[in-house]
Amino acid sequence: MNFFSILLTGSLLTGGLGASAYALTNHQQTAAQTNETVKTISEIKAKEIALGASKGGLVTKCELDQDNGMTKYEITIIKQNEEFEVEVNAETGKVLKLEQELQDKAGDENKAEHMNEAPLQGVTPTISLENAKKAALDTIKGSITEAELDDEDKQLVYEVDILTADHREAEVKVDAVSGKVLSTEFSD
């Protein structure tokens, strides 16, 4: 019986050591298995890069987007009668796309017909997109998901979309000339 107990104890001990070794080797993450966090450039840095590419202007829209596994900033800039669409790689800061479009009277009139309103002539925003975002966040607490300059009812407004802590979506409209919050709407 004594021999049998030693044999059983030895088997249990060997099995226990084997299981421990298995747990230590097969369940530890290797460098290849860990999820590395990808470092992205800041929104401010992306705007600086885009403004450099367009040689100045006013940023009217900036959003972080994921496209085909690549994270990028999509930035819209207005400069006199030109509109620039700039895409900046969020990891490297490299300009991926720079499109320039002249805003002529025909284009403005077509846009106005589509919106059933007359085009705004000679009106430019006096507050920045950043100040509009701040005003919106002072009104509704949360995270900004999108912000853009828009022509609404013959008035330039920044439309700022915010996701609140309770996962509700809000749209805050800020007057682009005075900086006053015009309206706040929650979507269900």
UniProtKB/TrEMBL annotation:
Keyword Disulfide bond: no
Boundaries of every PepSY domain copy: 41-98, 127-185
One Pfam assignment: PepSY
Keyword Signal assigned: yes
Keywords per UniProt: Signal
Leader peptide range in chain numbering: 1-23
Name recorded for this polypeptide: PepSY domain-containing protein
Organism phylogeny: Bacteria, Bacillati, Bacillota, Bacilli, Bacillales
